[in-house]
Amino acid sequence: MGAAAFSGSAAATFVFGGGKAVARAPVIAQPIANDTKKLVLDLAERPAALPCFDGKTLPLWTFEEGSLYPIVRMKLGERLDTQYANHLPRAGEYVSLHWHGLRIPNDQDGVPFMTQKPVEPGSSGTYSFVPPDTGSFFFHTHCNTDEHFGRGLVGALIVEGDEIEPSDAEYVLMMKDWRLSPEGTFLPFSTDAGAAKAGTSGTVRSVNGEKTAVFKVPSSANVRIRFYNVDPTRISEIGFEDGEAAIIAIDGNGLDPLPLVSWRMGPAMRIDILLRTAPEGGKVRLVDFFAKEPVVLAEFVSEGPAKRSGAFVPTPLKVMPFPNVDVGNAQIIPFIFSATATGEALSEFAKSDVEIGSLCLTKRTFWAINKQAWSSMDHRDLGPPLAVLKSGQSYIFDLQNTTPHSHPIHIHGHTFEVMSSSMRHVQPHRADTILLRPNERVQAGIVGGQPGKWMFHCHIIDHQETGMMGYIEVA
After folding, report:
1. Residue 365 CB partners (closer than 8 Å, separation 6+)
2. At the fourth CATH level, which superfamily is domain 164-306?
3. Which CATH superfamily is domain 327-474 in?
4. Tens digit of pLDDT for each residue in 246-291?
5. 3-state class of 149 per DSSP?
6. What is the C-alpha separation between 30 and 36, in angstroms, rounded?
7. CB atoms within 10 A of CB 388
8. Residue 193, SS3?
9. What is the tens place of the pLDDT at every residue in 121-146?
10. Which ranges in the chain are annotated with CATH 2.60.40.420?
11. What pTM value is reported for the model?
């Protein structure tokens, strides 16, 4: 199952039911604000009884009081000034915040020991930047990430200003599993058996903290759904049992509306969906078809008078003016994602004026990129980059998965143009995370962005923390 994706940079015509999308040239998004948005985050333990916990209270770690996943909305052109405090309850629990999918300056990227000194418990830090793109992004810590994701420490960042025709309503869905014992306590967030294979799986599924999220929606309406996979491990095949729907953005990047049959998503991937809801009294169900038995993730129950009566003809979003990949002059750089011998121990770290927290690293090494495993490196002595790019120059990343497991490959501070696959038909589209299927080879164009060291890794967190991570240097 799956669907092809079409570039947002080319006009196209698609048929949706009885309606025909009108071919049109892309509309470029422009800044719609120039003021500053203030964001205050307090990372702390907050016990909560989510609906998916069946009445049990667990010690979650969250960014703010009263909400599981904060949803931060801002407008294209606004500056985001963030102040964050680390009140996590464990000594040595350093934090930094990574702004996933944003092409921002390297010193704002939030990678501990690489782009900044992490913030220790009892201390605070700041970020200040202007997001250059519209879209559905998110933020999370980049140290002890398995546990932080596992306890709920993630938030959505939405940059508005991409709609040509406003939707009738909008909903944000955050899909995440929880690793709970039958007694209602957290299980280990990572295991060797899981990390060496597909990743350590959760035991309880959820969307927005519920086993099946239910939304009351306007009838016969076009509603926008921002769907996030913020699980550390799970791969899903997202689709609707009934109703017409179209993908209008991938990882926040607008594209010509693509009829949604199903869409395979790994951790950290996002899609924006335009859904025509059911008539009054009806419902549409969002389903994960990748599981052995289809799992209903959410229901959209229609109420009230109909908003629309015509055929479903989705309007594309505005797009961003990304630099074009000069394919004819692009250097091809191979990246081979492979398994390694297990059990390789890290060498002892030398002392420094910044104490390296043991929770940022692991002594297990199961994975590598170009035969180089991240966990065999000292954070201060990074070792060589996987590649060195020149800012403004075009490259083609030849991504080769030589393993029997899938790997969602994410690059910081850049956006790929997905070009081709050895296993499936792919029309070009932009994404910051590419799901490599087992033994698949994908070619993706990229233009060197802002100078700095940019992380490049699998976003199955078990794989990231056991070797499948490195960095790209842009000069």
Report:
1. 340, 341, 342, 343, 344, 373, 375, 376, 466, 467
2. Cupredoxins -  blue copper proteins (2.60.40.420)
3. Cupredoxins -  blue copper proteins (2.60.40.420)
4. 999 999 999 999 999 999 999 999 999 999 999 999 999 999 999 8
5. helix
6. 17
7. 12
8. helix
9. 999 999 999 999 999 999 999 989 99
10. 36-160, 164-306, 327-474
11. 0.92
